[in-house]
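re: ur msg from earlier - yeah i can do the flavin-adenine dinucleotide complex, just paste it... oh wait u already did. ok heres what im feeding in:
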Amino acid sequence: MTDVVVVGGGLAGLAASRRLARHGLRVALLEKRPELGGSSAMSGGWFALCGTALQQRSGVRDSDDVFVADMVDTGGGYSDEALLRALVERQAHAIAAIDRAEAWTDELKGSAGMTVPRAHLVRIRRLMAALAADAVGAGVAIHRERGADGLVVDGSRVVGVRCGSDSLPSPAGVVLTTGGFSRSRELLDLFVPAQASAMPYGGAGNTGDGLRMAWMLGAGLADIGHVTGTYGQHADTSDDEHELLTANYLGAILINVRGERFTDESASYKRLGAEVLAQPEGMAFQVFDSVVRARSRPGVPLSDIDRIAELGHLVTAPSIPVLAAELGIPARVLEGTIERYNAAVAGARQDDHGRTGLVNGVGALTPVESAPFFAYPAVTAMTSTYGGLRVAPDTAVLRVDGSRIDGLFAAGEVVGGFHGSSYMTGTALTKALVFGVEAADAIVRG
Ligand SMILES: Cc1cc2nc3c(=O)[nH]c(=O)nc-3n(C[C@H](O)[C@H](O)[C@H](O)COP(=O)(O)OP(=O)(O)OC[C@H]3O[C@@H](n4cnc5c(N)ncnc54)[C@H](O)[C@@H]3O)c2cc1C
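and the outut:
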């Protein structure tokens, strides 16, 4: 017999399953793919957290209130502040899980949406392996290649999950942790057609199944029209290793195929994602010099220029005209663009696009002037879809009219309401882990 079925074996599903089993419930975890992991296992491993030992060691002054205020700002007023407060209040669950797995690194940085360094690099696969081992140790039954396709309802309460012609009873409630819909062209076309041409990425099983199942029961949606791709991936990237690079946050400029800049490169990679999709050929080169090249952080996702070079995707040239020729861009235009940018960095003129810093307006800019020169051709990838089901702070799924769907809980990327119109780096993983735990606790509270 099973008390609770958890649908989806990424970070949120593992966190929920482990916690439920630790509370003494009998848990079945369904994963439709041959392996657990989803987008979580493919991710960069950045977690947004405050009050950590690493922040303290690094002398970073941060607080719960600043964390919430930054997320509210990033979300452009669209996110649900009650959810953001709940995330910050319960981040100790994430910190404890990372502690138990001994999955911390020493990497801490400021990134999209942050006014202070709050992005912590975590060994994500080690964390997932520890959660999975713990879950199995606590008695969770993991069913791979078992996709759910519907919810069983008794009266108005969700009491089970349907898998084809079978149904699994789940009398204490069902937790949806099916991830987003980055792999569903149909849902992207429906919700965000202007983004649908982004490179499909994220977990291969992330086709919005949880959304559809809850939708059938009248679930409300949040933030869904704000879903945006992430800029910075090579067009030939495989599913085995993402190639996201944001050399722009190290000082690179973005150049379109006409040789022009078109934006403030320090903006969120989500905003840049939308802007790059609108450029000719839907791509932009990250162009930089040897000063920026030397800022590469091998092994650190988003900053590892060395890895991009190893993969053969970095263009190198001894001069700007040669670089322009390699990229198929008119040399005169590229030289003119770089001259104007360098003059703005030197303070001789206003920047054409209002850039004042490396990331989020913070960090000193350097001119593009020291040979050799480099370019990384990159597109917008739909790595994750941050809009989804409307939920209460205890993860109960809410109907369109705001009432709770009895017995139905959801956590992770299937949920909306946290990110609003944009996204702070690291909040997706923190949200998956924290609210996976919260879903379990909510079920136990009854
Ligand atoms: C390349 C990349 C880099 C990223 N980097 C970061 C980062 O550094 N920091 C950050 O915060 N976020 C990052 N993200 C986003 C983040 O990884 C995800 O938002 C988060 O991992 C989602 O966790 P989840 O548990 O909700 O979903 P997932 O980890 O995607 O798990 C969902 C699981 O549910 C399964 N599933 C789906 N439908 C069904 C069904 N019907 N039945 C059974 N199983 C089903 C899927 O196969 C999948 O295994 C990144 C994403 C990508 C793709």
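cool cool. The chain has a mean pLDDT of 96. ping me if u need the other ligands too
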